[in-house]
Every structure is written in C-alpha cells, then in structure tokens.
Amino acid sequence: MSYQALYRVWRPQQFIDVVGQEHITKTLQNALVQEKTTHAYLFSGPRGTGKTTAAKILAKAVNCERAPVTEPCNECSACLGITNGTIQDVIEIDAASNNGVDEIRDIRDKVKYAPSSVRYKVYIIDEVHMLSTGAFNALLKTLEEPPRHVMFILATTEPHKIPLTIVSRCQRFDFKRITAKAIVGRMQLIADETGTSYDPAALPIIARAAEGGMRDALSLLDQAISYSHERVTIEDALTVTGSVSQNFLYQMAEAIVEKDVVKGLDSLNELLYMGKDPSRFIEDFILFFRDMLLFKTAPTLEESLERVMMDDGFKELSEKFSASQIYDLIGLLNKTQQDMRWTSNPRIFLEVATVKLCQLDSSQGSTSSNQSAGQDISALLNKINKLEEEVRELRKNGIATSTNESNTPVQKQAQRTSRRGFQAPAGKINEILKDATKADLNLIKSQWAEMLQRLMKSHSALLNEAEPVAASQTAFVIKFKHEIHCQMAMENSKFTEAVTDGLRETTGKTFTFAGVPEEQWVKIRESFLAGQHSGREEEVRKEEDPLIDEAKKLFGGDLVEIID
User: Fold this and answer.
1) What count of other Cβ atoms lies within 10 Å of the Cβ of residue 146?
2) 336 to 12, 254, 339, 458: CA distances (angstroms)
3) Cα-atom radius of gyration of the chain, to the nearest Å?
4) pLDDT score of 63
5) Can you say whether the dihedral through the CA atoms of 24, 25, 31, 34 is positive or negative?
6) Domain spanning 426-526: which CATH class is it, in words?
7) Is 102 exposed, middle or buried (0-12, 13-18, 19+ CB in 10 A)?
C-alpha cells in the first residue's frame, strides 16, 4: 500500500516529539546521559499515549553509535536499522498472541547469546498482562538477573493484572492521558506540514473525542480528511466523531428554558435520525452545562471550557439558567448516563430524561419559597409593631398599674423561654424505665428498620443517628446523638404521629415515646440506677431484725446463720 495512516507516518522518533509525557521522557533522558539505564522497564497507561513509541526510542538511544546521548541521532546504521526493523537484536513481541510458556522459554534460552549488530539486545513485550501464569513464572528469573547486554521493556494498559513479583523487578513509568490542548497542537503541526486545510474549531472536537489518546486523535483526523472535500470543517468533525453541534445543544437548552416538551422531543428525534450516538450526545450535554456553570461562577476561566465556543448566543442562554437549576440538570443527566450503560435501548432513557428536564421547576420553586419566607417575616414584623404600639397606649392610660404583681410570673416565663437547649422529660423517662424489659426493647429494635422505610425522608433523616434504648409494653425511649435533632423531632407533631403509626403497622401495638439527647440520657440513666440501688438497700435494712444486726456485730456476718 502506497498510503500510510497518519499515526504511522508521524510516529515520534525522538523523546522531544512524545507529547504529554514530559515526566517520563525527562527521566529517561537523564538516565541515558548518566548511563544509569536499568535492565527492565514497565510502561503502563491508557491506549495511544506513547508506550510502545517510547520503548522503541529508548531502544535506539541505548544502541546509538553516538551514545551516551539524550536523543537517538536517527542517522547511524543502528538507529536506522531499528527504525526500519532490520536489526534482529531489537525484538518486539505481542504478548496477546504469544502468551504461552513455550514462547517465554524460547526467550529465556536465546537471551544468553550476545547481540550480533548493536550493543544491547532489547525485548519489547507489548500487552504483557496477557501472559499466562506459567509464562510469568518462566520470565521471572530471567527478568530479575538477565545478562548485561539485555534490556526488557514491558508495556501494558492493565498493570493491575501483572504479578507483583514482576512489577517489583522493573522501573515503572505511568503514562497519563494527553490533554486536549496538547493533542490539538500536535494535529495543527501535522495538518500544516501536510498542507491540509482545516477549520481551527474542528480540531478541538476531534481531540475531545479521542479521550486522551494521540493515536485515536490522528486516526479520527485521517478519517475527517478523507471525508471532507477540500477543507476539514466543524460538520465533518462532528460527523466523524458522532458528536453534537453546538446549535443543537442550544435548541435542547432553549426547550428546557421554555419548558416545551414537544420541542425537546422533536430535537431529540432529529438527533437520533441523523445517526448520532446517544451516549456521545448525553456526554456532550453534560459538558455543555458544565461549561455554562463555570462561565456563570468563574467567567475568567474561559480557557477551561471544554465543549462550547464562547459566543453571544451562549452568553444570552446562560443568563436564563440559575446555578441551582444547572446543578439539578447535571445531576439528572448524570443519572441518565449511568442508567444508559446497562440497557439495550438507550433511546427510552433519553426521552424520559428530556421530559424531566423540560419539567424541572427548581428556579421557580426557590423563588416562590423565598418570596413566601419574606412575606411571613414582614407579617411578623407588622404584628410586633402593632403589639408594641398597644402596650405603649395601655401604659399611657394607666391601665398597666399592677406591675409589681405581674413581675414574678413575667420573670419566671422569661427564664423559661431564655433557657437554651432541649430538656428531656426525665419524669416520663423514669416511668418507662421502671417497667422496661429486654424483650420489649428487642421487639422495637427488630421492627426499627422496617419502620424507618415507611417514614418520609425528612422524618427518617432525623433518626439517622438515633436508636431506641429502653422500652416497656406501652412506651419506649429514643436516644439522639445530637440535641438539635432531638429538639426538632420532639417538637414536630407530624413526626411523632408518623413514628407511632409506623410501629403500630409493624408490631401491632401502640407505643408512645420520649426523646432524649445522648448526654442527658447518660445522666438520667445513672440517676435512675442509683435510686433503684439505694431503694433496695433501704428495703433490706428495714426487713432485718435488730437482734440479728447485733449478733452480726458480735460474731461476724460469716458465722451467723439465720433460720426461720
């Protein structure tokens, strides 16, 4: 074939051309110059990030006739031979198709022979995680102590599948996903060198679809060049990658703002009719609202926008959405994306999500709640002002003359209202403790989880860190970890009714209950136990005869035996 793919033609031949992996190339270059290369390397990372490419460059650099060098010269016979694949001392093995014990034993037998044309014999084993257990065991000893003229470079996309005994014998380098900005820069260089005409806005679309892999990006660029006529346009990039145009995202967002379900479903059907990928669409839609949220909260971070191009239409549309509404939209879209991964018909989830998005009313709900809260506060302030005016008039007319008589109850009431915190009903709790049994408590606890499921979320949330600690046949005690939760629960009549009804449905009995914070429960329980203990001692003391007490004093309690 006369034509070669772009990723093959433009494969880096030097470390400086490896994009996005500077933390690895710099380390290898320093090791080459200082002649501190080791016998085994492990290159791991996502596909298309330069693992095999870096391995071949390293093989050329250690065998370059001008070594030690930071970069292979690509001019000497060793570099040219390794690039062309004519030197037999650099062996590249695909572990996916050569994963048996026999292939590794063949390597073990041949590794002792010196290289024939270069200084080092280099074994590049790609997708090394595909080796069988027996193959790994056969490679283990050779990998640990190979001859001085041998270097192993293992490459894998799944390092967790490699035995730790192999990993510990290698220097590991983790390749990271390449940023979209770096991929765009590389594609611009290639397009300019090849004389390809392109729309600058088309390259970011291709880079984003590549998901951090340079090989995938160049393959998509190659496909877009073949698809286009004379110039790679945005539409060509969208068609090749299956992405959605920004104008279509505008239509969907406008349908959400206008709460027009028909418009949203029509736009979605048009998208699917054009053959767009539903998964790609929902990912683009999430990134669209993510960029909108960044623009609203941090307008200066325009370079951080991944999906949209900043224009007047996007700015006008972003003003129609509140930040809280965008949170709800992203949450709903993210849940839909997760559900779509486990279904064979993602269209249904997309249509349901579109209807829900067009019916979201979070902005109006928050506005109405704020308005109602403001109205309540203003009404309370008006009432307070009226009461103050009435009190002034009464004092002027001399009606409130018995101030001394009214001081005492007013002061008592003021003390009662100014007391902070929640005071548990100690008397009621003590009455429950008198009749409490272990069996009644176990009955409540056995039905507690089922009762929580029957409650509303707002009610069950109050019982997240609460538990029943004592129970009788008609009542029980709930211990709350936090005092504020106890106060909120016990002052809410709907909550108490819901708990009573829930236990009645699960146990068939009607229970009343008392709430107590954890700190107060400890004090009430200790006080109750102390009272019980002192009461028993008093009863025993009263029952004993004075003569018996005197006998115990004279002869000792161990020698006195009481016989009725």
Assistant:
1) 19
2) 40, 20, 5, 25
3) 39
4) 92
5) negative
6) alpha beta
7) exposed
Fold observed for domain 246-363 = Zinc Finger, Delta Prime; domain 3 (1.20.272)
Continuous segment of H or E residues that includes residue 469: strand 466-471
Strand partners, 59: none
Give first-to-last CA distance, the chain, whole Å. 118
User: Residue 164 corresponds to which tokens in the numbers above?
Assistant: 């730790």
State the pLDDT at residue 175.
94
* Contact predicate 120/62, CB 8 Å: yes
pLDDT of residue 50: 92
Question: Is there a contact between 362 and 328 (Cβ–Cβ < 8 Å)?
Answer: yes
Query: Residue 529: is it exposed, middle or buried by C-beta count within 10 angstroms (0-12/13-18/19+)?
Result: exposed
> What is the distance between the alpha carbons of residues 43 and 45, in angstroms, rounded to a whole number?
7
Q: What is the pLDDT of residue 372?
A: 52
Q: What letter would DSSP give residue 73? A: -
pLDDT of residue 418: 39
For 330-393, give the DSSP string.
Answer: HHHHHHHHHHHTT-S-HHHHHHHHHHHHHH--HHHHHHHHHHHHHHHHHHHHHHHHHHHHHHHH
In 3-state terms the chain splits into helix, strand, coil percentages (rounded to 5) of 60, 10, 30
Residues constituting the chain: 564
Strands 40-44 and 150-156: parallel
Does residue 285 sit in helix, strand or coil?
helix
Most distant pair of Cα atoms in the chain: their distance: 123
Residue numbers of the chain with a pLDDT score lower than 50:
362-369, 400-419
pLDDT value for 458? 76
CATH class of domain segment(s) 180-241: mainly alpha
Residue 198: its H or E element: strand 197-198
Helix 77-84, helix 51-63: angle, nearest 10: 150
How many angstroms separate the CA atoms of 79 and 96, rounded? Answer: 27
Q: Which residue has the tokens 């000893």?
A: 141
The neighbouring-strand residues paired with 471 are 476
- The domain spans of the chain are 6-174, 180-241, 246-363, 426-526
CA 129/CA 159 separation, integer angstroms = 7
Find out if CATH 2.30.30.50 is the number for domain 6-174. Answer: no
177 C-beta neighbours (distance < 10 Å), count: 18
| pLDDT score recorded for residue 401 | 41
Query: Is the distance from CB of 6 to CB of 219 less than 8 angstroms?
Result: yes
Contact 475, 461 (CB under 8 A): no
Query: Could you tell me the two tokens for 58?
Result: 């390293």
Per-residue pLDDT, 21: 92
Q: Find out whether 259 and 282 touch, Cβ atoms under 8 Å.
A: no
Q: Is 451 in contact with 503 (CB distance < 8 Å)? A: yes
- Helix intervals (H) in 111-244: 133-144, 164-167, 180-194, 202-210, 214-227, 234-241
Q: 461: closest CA among 494, 497, 485, 477?
A: 485
CA distance 64 to 75: 9
Instruction: Output the pLDDT for position 170.
Output: 93
